[in-house]
Amino acid sequence: MPIVVDKERKRAEILEAAMLVFASKGFHRAKMEEVAAAARIGKGTIYEYFTSKPQLLQALHGHMLGKLKDYYSEKLKGIEEPPEILGHFLAAALASFREWEPFFYVFCDVWAEAGRAEQQNLLRMQLREAYQSSIDDLTRVVEAGVAGGFFRCEQPRLAAEHILACVDGLALHWLYDPDAFDLEEMTGSLTRTVLRSLS
Amino acid sequence: MPIVVDKERKRAEILEAAMLVFASKGFHRAKMEEVAAAARIGKGTIYEYFTSKPQLLQALHGHMLGKLKDYYSEKLKGIEEPPEILGHFLAAALASFREWEPFFYVFCDVWAEAGRAEQQNLLRMQLREAYQSSIDDLTRVVEAGVAGGFFRCEQPRLAAEHILACVDGLALHWLYDPDAFDLEEMTGSLTRTVLRSLS
Amino acid sequence: MPIVVDKERKRAEILEAAMLVFASKGFHRAKMEEVAAAARIGKGTIYEYFTSKPQLLQALHGHMLGKLKDYYSEKLKGIEEPPEILGHFLAAALASFREWEPFFYVFCDVWAEAGRAEQQNLLRMQLREAYQSSIDDLTRVVEAGVAGGFFRCEQPRLAAEHILACVDGLALHWLYDPDAFDLEEMTGSLTRTVLRSLS
Amino acid sequence: MPIVVDKERKRAEILEAAMLVFASKGFHRAKMEEVAAAARIGKGTIYEYFTSKPQLLQALHGHMLGKLKDYYSEKLKGIEEPPEILGHFLAAALASFREWEPFFYVFCDVWAEAGRAEQQNLLRMQLREAYQSSIDDLTRVVEAGVAGGFFRCEQPRLAAEHILACVDGLALHWLYDPDAFDLEEMTGSLTRTVLRSLS
DNA sequence: GATGAATGAGAATTCATTCAT
DNA sequence: CATGAATGAATTCTCATTCAT
Fold it and tell me: What string of H, E and C letters represents the secondary structure of chain C?
């Protein structure tokens, strides 16, 4: 089914274009026309793939979540021991600040958009689910670590929350002040702190 | 004889109105007219106090930072021992999620706006300075704790970063999913984790 | 397949509409919406062809200069003898007061707008060039008349200035007081005076 | 009645301020507040002396006409012979281009404003009367010249029209292109042409 | 399916004017 | 009288979206 593949590819191209444009100009300042230009298609064509600008952002968000998931899968492939998983996760997370910087700018737009509850607010639901899912994954790692005798932790889910919150908070801080701290140094420091707090 | 007006008070009233309106509708969806209505003044009057909508957001951000500072001063008044300071700080921080919820919504707008560098981008600079200042304060607490024999910590500044990042990340998560965790439980858990990581 | 439009024709239609609207209400009192309505298009469409209201005026000015040029070319076609050229020119000029009355109203707006130097002030430059060009043309006629033994004139350029200034001044006066003088009578009188001053 | 004198003086000060502001920014771009600032009074005070912005322009126009009249009276004082009067008038007129440059900018605004007939349009009537009056004066000079045997002229009023139109046209041209011609040279040339055309 | 010309709802901002002091 | 804080009508310009081709 080559036509379907083609459609899928074009959709992805639009999303990539949207990401770059939204990241550099901000969701509200970016024009659909600019996204179209970046995707090398006509303005009207976007509407063949997405119903509206907010929906495009939501789709982009979903797309980004998927790419992040792939990124982590890749980085954590074959790693078995919970402490190691955590270490690699943190390293991957902090490394992503630089590698996926545009993502984080778009995330800020998502946060700003998802904030106010509206007609269903799919964006907010999507955000929530993504968070839940991440916490779930991380909680499982911590639990596995406890089960395997690596960690000691009475409330694994709360610990997972701490870890993820820390990563998000650092991302935000780093985004607005890349000189605030050294990413490599921070990776080491954070890993040590997290592992120590679980021992 | 010209009408005498407390310009400072009126300015503050507009800022309070802007905060509520921006928080509930989002910066971009909110109209200046709505802010004016909320402040019970005419549309044009806002421009006697602020030069533009973005500048109003920036001023609001500064206003909010000031109020948060006062809030923390109040909550930490008279507390001397570093571990206690940290505990009260964390309690105050998590309590502020609920108490100052509108602030956090506006912060999301600020993050989205501050992201893209424009004419100087005062917003970004203001954000950066506020962050630096918070980190400085927290670092000093950790250092005092080390000096007083309460804590052990080789890189107080990085520890301060961890703590602040964690708070911010939790705020964000809680904002979009108030059921994600119980605030009181989290306060205890976070305090324990932080204090343990410094012992 | 995109809609094919004769952009040039549409542009001209907007300019014609703008001329009528500006002429009847004045540049500053006319709304873009009125121009659009007169051109039977949507408000936003004007901005597909012109970047701003002042730019529309400038474009209109250029358009009018072109039409005036065509008008004179037409009126003077095939006339060879310098005295005859001058006579026909003056007749055409005074006749244009009535025929192109809207033009002159718009010229008043142009004069008022072009006055103050701003970002380059294309309007002023355009005005200057048009004037220069007219003076050049008229000077050449006078010179040809001198060369052909029809006229005696030591400073043809200054003479050309007199003639053109006289026409413009009369236009202005007639515009605000059509009863000030009889156009036909004035045409004869002016022609006689000009020709006598060159003999 | 010192109070009345004071009122009159203040009114004149506002008019002088308005002239400078209107001349430099244009009637429509100038703000009442700027006029007030230039007159060193409060914004509201203008309305104690003038009922509206258009009325201020109209009053200013009247004020300027008066000053011009005084200027010419002064320049032509004691001159009796019609040819000399004409010569001095033309010299004064062209000299005024430089000396009273702001006047001419404001005149452009007046032309643009007076153009469209509205509720009575006092401005237009004022303009017309001023023109009539000038033509009358000039006609009388020509007639006196004819009577005195200095000139030969069958239609003195039309001749007066030519002269005045020429001056106005030159003013306009010079205003937008001060390099178009040399004022002194033009004065001589114009005087010679005018006197010759009347001989 | 793709396009981009056309659209008009919508919002920020301006500024002449008013009027309480 | 003079003032300048307050106002809101008015207008430009933007841009997401539509739809004829």
Answer: CCCCCCHHHHHHHHHHHHHHHHHHHCCCCCCHHHHHHHCCCCHHHHHHHCCCHHHHHHHHHHHHHHHHHHHHHHHHCCCCCHHHHHHHHHHHHHHHHHHCHHHHHHHHHHHHHHCCCCCCCHHHHHHHHHHHHHHHHHHHHHHHHHHCCCCCCCCHHHHHHHHHHHHHHHHHHHHHCCCCCCHHHHHHHHHHHHHHHCC
Chain D CB contacts of C131 under 8 Å are: 173, 176-177, 180
> Residue A115: pLDDT above 90?
no
For helices C122-147 and C156-176, the axis angle rounded to 10 degrees is 120
pLDDT, residue A61, reads 96
**Which alpha helices (H) appear in chain D, and where do they start and end?**
2-25, 32-38, 46-49, 53-76, 82-99, 101-114, 122-147, 156-176, 183-197
Domain ranges of chain A: 1-50, 58-197
CB–CB contact C181 D161 (8 Å): yes
Nearest nt by C1' to C2 Cα: E3
- pLDDT digit string (tens) for C60-91? 999 999 999 999 999 999 999 999 999 999 99
Which of D128, D170, D197 has its CB closest to that of C165? D170
Q: Which nucleotide is nearest to B39 (CA to C1')?
A: F6
pLDDT(A68) > 90: yes
Three-point CA angle B48, B113, B122, nearest 5°: 60
C176 touches chain D (CB under 8 A): yes
User: Measured from the CB, is B48 under 7 Å from any atom of strand F?
Assistant: yes
Q: How many Å lie between the alpha carbon of D111 and the closest alpha carbon of chain C?
A: 6
| Touching D: C residues 5-64, CB under 8 Å | 24-29
B5 touches strand F (CB under 7 A): yes
Q: Which chains have 3 or more CB–CB distances shorter than 8 Å to chain B?
A: A
Tens digits of pLDDT across chain C (199 residues): 555 668 889 999 999 999 999 999 999 999 999 999 999 999 999 999 999 999 999 999 999 999 999 999 999 999 999 999 999 999 999 999 999 999 999 999 999 998 776 656 889 999 999 999 999 999 999 999 999 999 999 999 999 999 999 999 999 999 999 999 999 999 999 999 999 999 8
Touching check for D161 and chain C: CB below 8 Å? yes
Judging contacts by C-beta atoms under 8 Å, the chain B residues touching residue A124 are 176
CB C163 within 8 A of CB C138: yes
In chain D, % of residues over pLDDT 70: 95
Chain C residues 1-20 with Cβ under 7 Å of strand F are 1-4
Per-residue pLDDT tens digits for D144-179? 999 999 999 999 999 999 999 999 999 999 999 999
CB-based touch B/C (3+ pairs, under 8 A): no
pLDDT of residue A7: 83
Chains B and A touch, contact meaning at least 3 pairs of CB atoms under 8 angstroms apart: yes
**Domain D1-50, CATH 3.90.650.10 — does that match?**
no
CATH number of D54-197: 1.10.357.10
Report whether C198 contacts C152 (CB < 8 A).
yes
Contacts of A131 in chain B (CB under 8 A): 173, 176-177, 180
Min Cα separation A169/chain B (Å): 4
Q: CATH number of the domain at C58-197, out of 3.40.190.10, 2.40.50.140, 1.10.630.10, 1.10.357.10?
A: 1.10.357.10
- Thinking of the domain B57-197, which architecture would CATH place it in? Orthogonal Bundle (1.10)
Polymer length in residues for chain D: 199
Query: Given a cut of 60, is residue A172 above it in pLDDT?
Result: yes
